[in-house]
Each structure stands twice: as structure tokens, then as C-alpha cells.
Amino acid sequence: MKKLIIFLLPLLLFTACGEDCYNAPQPVVFEFVNDDGENLIANGTLTTYSIQDENHVSIQLTKTSDNRVLLENVGAYDGTKKYTFYSNVKVFDFTIQSSEFNSGCEGFQINKLTFTGIAIDVKDENGYYKIIFQ
């Protein structure tokens, strides 16, 4: 009986760990700047902003210490979702395409962000998106 318990204990431990394993998608961070590269939150131009998904549900936003905006809990789905950014300066739309993956842990990954809007330019800056309002 003791040998059976010693054999089954590691098996149960490894099985339990796999069920609780989850990888959240990478964070999405925006920095808003003007044509001169000035951060619009830092210089006081961008004072109010919000994001809603296609179902008009507000997305939680966190302003970082370097005056960027972190989008909370986006990308944890399989498919494409449309979002709208509202502010006192500009309004624009973007979509996030995500997919499910399983590499030892279940989770989601963001595959693509697509931006549409009048007089904006977007640069992927390795870790955040620089959105230039023109």
C-alpha cells in the first residue's frame, strides 16, 4: 500500500499543476504623442480618455508612471474584437485579434492590433504602441 501511495502522489501533483496553469495575454500599452513627440498626457493636452468594446463595455485603463495607458484584461478570447478610444482630443477605432494557445499551460495570445482613425499614426515600439495625433 505504501508503494502505491508513493507512486500516485507525484502523479497527482503533476496533474494538479497542469489544471491551474494559465498564461494571460501580453499587456497592451499606449503612449499618446503629438507630431513633435511630446507626450500628450504629460503636457496636459490629453485630459480625459476612455475605451469601450463593441458591446459598449468600458475597458479598465491604468495610467503608468511614464504617462502611458495600460489596457486591462484585453485579448483573453479567441477571435477579433472591436474597440473605440474616446478622448478630448481624438476618437479612433482599433481591433485586437487574439487566439487560444496551449504550450503546457492554457492561455491566449494577441496576434494583431489594427488601428483606424483620422489623422493618427501608430508605431509599434517593442512593448507599447506610440499613437501619434496629427
Description:
This protein has 134 residues and is mostly beta strands. It contains 1 helix and 10 strands; from the N terminus they run H-E-E-E-E-E-E-E-E-E-E. A 5-stranded mixed β-sheet has the order 1-8-7-6-3, with no helix packed on it. A hairpin with a 3-residue loop joins strand 7 and strand 8 (106-116). The chain is globular and about 45 Å long. The protein starts with a helix and ends with a strand. Residues 1-18 have low confidence and may be disordered.
Percent strand: over 45%
* Category from helices, strands and their pairing: mainly beta
Sum up the overall morphology in one term: globular
| Proportion in helices | 10-25%
Query: What Rg, in angstroms, do the CA atoms define?
Result: 20 Å
Number of helical regions: 1
Count of β-strands: 10
Spans where pLDDT lies below 50 across 5 or more residues? 1-18
- The average pLDDT score comes to 86
- How far apart, in Å, are the first and last alpha carbons? 74 Å
N-to-C SSE string, H for helix and E for strand:
HEEEEEEEEEE
Oligomer: single chain
Q: Main sheet? A: 5 strands, mixed
What is the spatial order of strands in the main beta sheet? 1-8-7-6-3
Give a quick set of tags describing it:
mainly beta; five-stranded mixed β-sheet; 1 helix; 10 strands
Give a short summary of the structure.
The chain is mainly β and 134 residues long. The protein is 13% helix and 46% strand.
Chain-wise SSE layout:
Elements: H1 2-19, E1 22-23, E2 28-33, E3 49-53, E4 61-63, E5 69-71, E6 79-87, E7 91-102, E8 106-116, E9 120-124, E10 129-133
Parallel strand pairs: 1-8, 2-10
Antiparallel strand pairs: 2-5, 3-6, 4-5, 6-7, 7-8, 9-10
